[in-house]
Design goal:
Distance between the termini: 57 Å
Strand content: 5-15%
Order of helices and strands: HHHHHEHHEEEHHEEEEHHHHH
Number of helices: 14
Radius of gyration: 31 Å
CATH class of one domain: Mainly Alpha
CATH topology of one domain: MetI-like fold
Structural class: alpha+beta
Number of strands: 8
Shape: globular
Strand order of the largest sheet: 1-2-3-8
Length: 475
């Protein structure tokens, strides 16, 4: 029996009834989110109220007034040019500990990244010995606890070194600074001219291009000739003397410290001007290439502005820099600067340990690149090194960067193990000594947690920006 068309039309036009608001998924989602938020706020308020009550009942004052009080204890190591004495405040100890944490984390990230990439590429080498050595390094270092590695470098390697009087002396030739700068500038100009001629001839059909090996030999000979000519003209010898400038002992590595003089700030302004000028040169070169198709040596021009301009200003401002050399006086060295055993042990342990994980990340990223990319690069005549540098690594970075961020965060947070060997990071000098002297546990621990949270967020933000920059752009 056929359905009545009017009845069908009436049934279709009737809108469906809305469910009750307690059965609506949108309302339920908002309700549970508000409920959870209220619960978190109530719980946090309970913790704060209970903490303040317990502190008041025990006569412990709250607040951050303690930061302005005199610390009364010394800190054996400071960085970034920060001076500290026992008369400084607890606020200064916070700054010193923060800077020491940033210093070791910064160098640890730098060294771990370089070593990790090298070991990761070695792990994929076709050479059996190189590949197995990389595998042994990875499997050994990453399976030994980091704290034990710190103890190994500190107690087994650096502390048994001889005292200051029996230091291991490392001698280096002292090169006249004026001679060195003049030679570098003149040689750089000559090498650039040779390179320009060699590249230009590649596009000249009538002349054969200069081979790379010939360009290298010509550059070395040019540097030697110019160095001797500068020595004769200026009267400055290349090597003035052998100076025992570096001393390694159980108190660290003593080395010459550069001391800026008046007028050094001019060179700093020259660096800033060179960076800004290089930025505008890059924009101008890109605009010119888009309009005319002509290429401009942007890299060399930028390098000349960022390095060459400050060097010229440095020379004409009277070379406002001298070195303070370490000297043995009494039972220790005075002058220069010192890398303490605590810093070296922590840096080596953090770098080697994190590098073992970065190496596996690099290996996974390279393996993620399609093998067809390598075959296509070989088909156009590229060799192994350019293929790795120009084809594989740029594509592998899209896989490497996200887990690499986690390793950077782990290294920064693992630096808190410095307290085990008395390296004065923020955990030792602020969350340790300062807390014991003041008793302001809540404020100090909250500030220390905020430091690591802030550092982690800054690292994550930068790496996420870099990851977006390296990501493929869909067209």
């Amino acid at each position: 029996m056929a359905a009545d068309p009017k009845q069908v039309s009436a049934d279709v036009s009737v809108p469906p009834s809305k469910p009750a608001f307690w059965n609506d998924p949108a309302w339920r989602a908002i309700f549970f989110q508000v409920l959870v938020l209220v619960g978190v706020v109530v719980f946090a308020a309970f913790l704060v109220r209970n903490t303040l009550h317990n502190m008041e009942s025990r006569g412990i004052s709250s607040g951050f007034d303690f930061l302005s009080k005199t610390a009364g204890f010394s800190i054996g190591e400071t960085h970034f040019g920060i001076s500290y004495t026992e008369e400084n405040s607890y606020g200064k100890t916070f700054i010193v500990g923060l800077m020491n944490t940033i210093w070791v984390s910064m160098w640890g990230v730098f060294l771990a990244t370089i070593l990790g990439f090298i070991i990761g590429v070695m792990r994929l080498s076709t050479n059996w010995l190189v590949s197995k050595l990389a595998m042994v390094y990875i499997e050994t270092i990453r399976n030994i606890p980091l704290l034990l590695q710190i103890f190994f470098w500190y107690f087994a390697i650096l502390r048994p070194l001889p005292g200051p009087r029996g230091s291991i002396q490392l001698s280096f030739p002292i090169i006249n600074f004026t001679h060195l700068i003049i030679t570098v500038l003149v040689s750089a100009a000559a090498i650039f001219l040779l390179w320009w001629i060699g590249v230009k001839k590649r596009y000249d059909a009538d002349q054969k291009a200069m081979p790379l090996w010939m360009l290298v030999i010509a550059s070395v000979v040019t540097v030697l000739i110019i160095g001797n000519v500068v020595s004769l003209v200026t009267g400055f010898g290349l090597v003035a003397q052998w100076n025992e400038s570096f001393f390694l002992n159980n108190r660290g590595l003593s080395y010459p410290q550069p001391i800026p003089e008046e007028g050094f700030a001019i060179t700093g302004w020259a660096v800033a001007i060179g960076v800004v000028a290089a930025f505008f040169v890059r924009r101008w070169a890109k605009k010119r290439q888009d309009e005319t198709g002509e290429q401009f040596p942007v890299f060399l021009a930028s390098l000349g502005l960022i390095i060459g301009l400050p060097l010229v200003i440095f020379i004409f401002s009277g070379l406002p820099l001298h070195f303070d050399y370490p000297k043995l006086t009494g039972f220790n060295f005075t002058g220069g600067s010192v890398l303490t055993p605590e810093f070296i042990s922590l840096l080596l342990a953090l770098s080697f340990y994190t590098a073992s994980f970065i190496a596996e990340i690099v290996r996974a990223g390279i393996n993620a690149v399609s093998h067809g990319q390598t075959e296509a690069a070989r088909a156009v005549g590229l060799r192994a090194n350019p293929i790795l540098r120009l084809v594989i690594i740029p594509q592998a970075l899209r896989v490497i960067i996200p887990p690499l961020t986690s390793q950077y965060l782990n290294l920064t947070k693992n630096s808190s193990l410095a307290a085990a060997i008395a390296y004065p990071d923020i955990v030792l000098v602020f969350a340790g000594t300062t807390l014991m002297q003041t008793g302001q546990a809540v404020e100090i621990i909250a500030m220390t947690m905020a430091v690591y949270l802030t550092l982690s967020l800054l690292i994550s933000t930068f790496m996420n920006w870099y990851n977006e920059k390296m990501a493929l752009v869909e067209r």
